[in-house]
Write a structure and sequence with these properties.
Blueprint: H1 2-23, H2 29-37, H3 40-49, H4 58-94, H5 108-132, E1 140-144, E2 147-151, E3 156-162, E4 165-170, E5 175-178, H6 182-189, E6 193-197, E7 200-203, E8 207-210, E9 214-217, E10 220-223, H7 226-234
Antiparallel strand pairs: 1-2, 3-4, 3-7, 4-5, 6-7, 8-9, 9-10
Helix pairs in contact: 1-2, 1-5, 3-4, 3-5, 4-5
Length: 236
Amino acid sequence: MKKTLIVLGVWILAIVLIATLVVSMGFSFPEALLIGVLFLPGALAARFFLPKISFEPRKAGIRDSVFVLLAILVSETALIVLANLYILRLRKIFLFEYDDYSPTLFNPVFIAGVLTLLILVDWALKRYLEKSFPAAREPIRFISDRKPVSLLPEEIRYIESNDKEVMVYATEGRRFRNKTGISQWESILGDGFVRIHRSYLVNRAAITSVGPDSLTASGQTLPISRKYRNTLASTD
């Protein structure tokens, strides 16, 4: 219950702050609240779609991220334009008179800035809730060789990427083949796992020793690339 109240409180505060900003552009507060609420679909779309993007290869990940963000920006701009038309219609019906509003609201740069702030708020809120309200880990469900597999995160020892597929190495010597990219696995598994190489994602609990260029996990020696060496050192 407390967790739900915190989430609702943060998002209500965010909407009110956006509405306060919009009021300064010539809208009434009820109109501004409507516009503030319309920013939420874009933030939620970013939360849903961006973690699903794989950066293997990196160029494809960057390209897909740009496409997703542009689609969100275009959709948000369309929503705000439609809301403005609705507001103008209501003003005519009820003979409301307000000062002319600023065109800044319809500026894509302004809309992108508000969305970016909401995405950062959502990210910070998620991290805070994960630390303050730790929950039981849910099983990870995926398909391997056309068969459904369900594993607890702690059962996964490490993941190895091989071109267009990955191998999931689990306890008791089990191995599973899967098509999900390693970057997506990194997002799914979260802070309990650490990336040590473009091809390896390792369960922190499985690491038994760390050297300058490799580590041992579940009896296997895995390479540490220069790119991820500092990341591994900073999270020890």
